[in-house]
Amino acid sequence: MTYIAKPKMHHPTLQTNKVGYTRRDYEGRISTLCAGCGHDSISAAVIQACWELDIEPHRVAKLSGIGCSSKTTDYFLGASHGFNTVHGRMPSVLTGANLANRELLYLGVSGDGDSASIGLGQFANAMRRGVRMAYIVENNGVYGLTKGQFSATADRGAKNKKGAINNDNPIDLVGIALQLGATYVARSFSGDKAQLIPLIKGAMSHGGAAVIDVISPCVTFNNHGGSTKSYDYIRQHNEAVSRIDFISPSSEITTEYAPGAVVDVPQHDGSILRLRKLHADYDPTDRDAAMSYMHARAARGEVVTGLLYLDPLATDLHTSLNTCEQPLNTMGAQLLCPGSEALNKINDALR
Amino acid sequence: MKRIAAINDFVIKFANVNGSGSASANELFAKAVMRMGVPVSPRNIFPSNIQGMPTWYEARVCEKGYHGRRGGVDMMVAMNPQTWDTDIAEISPGGYLLYDSTRPQPASRFRDDVLTIGVPLTDIANAAYTDPRQRQLFKNIIYVGALSVLLDVDVAVFDTLFAEQYKGKGKERLLEANVQALHLGRDYVKQHLQAPLDIRVQRADNVGDQIFTDGNSAAALGLVYGGATVAAWYPITPSTSIPEMFAKYCEKFRVDPDTGQNRFAIVQAEDELASIGMVVGAGWNGARAFTATSGPGISLMTEFIGLAYFAEIPVTIVNVQRGGPSTGMPTKTQQSDLLACAYASHGDTKHVLLFPQDPHECFTHSAAALDLAERLQTPIFVMTDLDIGMNQRLCKPFVWDDNKEYDRGKVMSAEELEAGTPFGRYKDVDGDGIPWRTLPGTHPTKGAFFSRGTSRNPQAMYSEAGPDYIYNMERLLRKFKTAESMVPQPIFRQATAPTKLGVIYYGSTTPAMREALDVLERNGDHLDAMRLCAFPFPDSVRKFIAEHDKLFVVEQNRDAQMRSMLINELEIDPAKLVRVLHYDGTPITARFIISTIHDCVHKEVA
Fold this sequence. Notes:
A: Rossmann fold, three-stranded antiparallel sheet, 12 helices, B: alpha/beta, Pyruvate-ferredoxin Oxidoreductase, domain 3, 4 domains
């Protein structure tokens, strides 16, 4: 970490996006995480993705739980409202916030302890409900803030810094998300910015529950030999199934690809996810196939990354609840209160 | 044996099997008596079970309008063989027993000091109906018919009630069937028995414009009127009917007529942690949100309640209290969550509690809670209980002022931010301890802040610096002080003679207390009374206590929780506050209050 703040002043030549913001306008406070922490790379990717998406920063609400990962919401999008909630319970708070105002974009940030251990129930149920959000799990397999205990995503047989072996089976959040109906499921690696940024852009533009499990090595407590969440281990075992390019609704499509090699998947907002398949046999719109592919690869020790599953026609909780278009938090008595005449009728019926 | 003779003043208890359809028949009986202008207060006594277990419906007929449970049973309608012995034993000497005489019973199963009235209900029903379900359901209406003659209830009120329920709704067949069943019961009694009895109903005019409803429905309606748009909940007895009724009222009143879309969002969450989490999220984002639960739910929600207190987020929680601790007595009533709610969460916290006395106040307090939550930016608890929540009660009709706007509290607008109004999320700019907030998405560059459960400075930046922490905690106390004048104020009743004795009570104890005070007064035991309507306690509470030498604190829990709160908050000498506690799970009775206070007062004198 550094304690020297960058000057607020923006250089006049800094490039602005379509809504007039520079990349710097998407930054937050200075990170207090350890130097080299994977989470800081994810924060940088969020900043880049939001800038490239031309999102006005204040139209994003960022919510998190508790832990190193959850602290990062303070380190990007400083002009957005943020909410550091309680441990493992970000999904419910985000759900409520989303119900109150469906017009904002919701970014949930969590960790492996937060989402897979204490908050597994809330993670699972938010996926079931299809809450529209981009849910990023910054997954390092350990509890960083309490100095290196295994979390529920640590692989069986993985070694901690003191040499102890983890005997419990890991929880695979991607597998759970797929099984429970999440409509945008990806895994990535904090060290692969080129893969991560378009995945975040796709998730932010998705019409339903989008989850990205980002393997994000903990340089202090889980980056040693014997760890299965270290930079070296992930680089050696990373098996990307796809590369995506995110194409916003107004961009021109210029690049030509050989037929069969790419699939253009239009999203509900008109944007296009251009999927370059790195494995010919991988179909990211087939949920069952995605699940069995992942299981087979995981058994071989590979960490499958990329966009694993996408339902481009996804709907969300508001669709299920048939909520009106106008955000609920903007309604006053005129729209909400049935009035005294109706109340008198109710009184009459109770006599 | 002298028979009990009473006009418009008796208790009748129905012993039934749950799931047998008796509830609507019993309600029909209660309503019929009320249509005679005589107040009735019924109470369901039921198990945590769906079918086959014993259930009772105890209706107090009382022309004077005392709605508290009286105690004692003047007439038993014994329809449940499982509980026969205890039901028979419960009848007061000189009382009455109505039973199904289809199967002969040995004389040893009856009591000499109780007038036994046999009606062959099963035979009558079997002769009239072939469908087994109909036989069961109409047997209930047949006993209501029999009772109507025995107790002299005008048959015309039944005609009106049936017509209101079935006529013009495509249910004409049901109308006829019910009328027929009622008359089967009436005719049998007229032909075979002496009627009316010495306990009976006589036309009066003491119901007036009152309504007859339960606290949970009323609370749900109050939440609709108060503008709640987000409801998150988890099923738990005895609160479940609040979100269910909220949904029903929303379907009726909150669907956009043009689009067919909902101006509400209701989520049945995976547990109480998620329910309160959603309410916190919605409140943070500016929607009026609530959850309804009971004691075990409160225990689970406690961490979030602390967050909402410290991060200052509007939250409304209706707690329909039941018997605790742990799973306790899920279908019995208590006022035993006061301390758990008033000081919920770790660290130093204090929460606003409202204490409705009946369905009318469940409505007003629930609507008021939504205003208070946004004004004070904190959790507000509506502390009802099973006795008020799940029983129908006569009460004042609901009222609403159409000119009333919702109080959205201190929310800074985009215009104010644009005009350069200084914003510090946790800064006390008005001196009342209540800071200003902004909602997410308000302004592109101004007013964003980071909400957190960690300590912060007035600008909402993380800070563990002592002075920042103290500033915040002291401000929260100041805010709690501000709440004193905003919450419903205590209600006083002065004795007819000067006295140094006082009594303090709240919530569902109120109707029994009103009756007890009348009786005590008549007997020469003069007490000034104060009904607490909310926590924090305004100065008038301190003053009332100071003006008296000894005060009885009447409540429905073991540990005298309100008494502890008064001692704790107002630094009252504990010796001054005498515990009057009723906590066996049944609603407190006037008889209990009268005898406990009477004994205590006269023991002192002796």
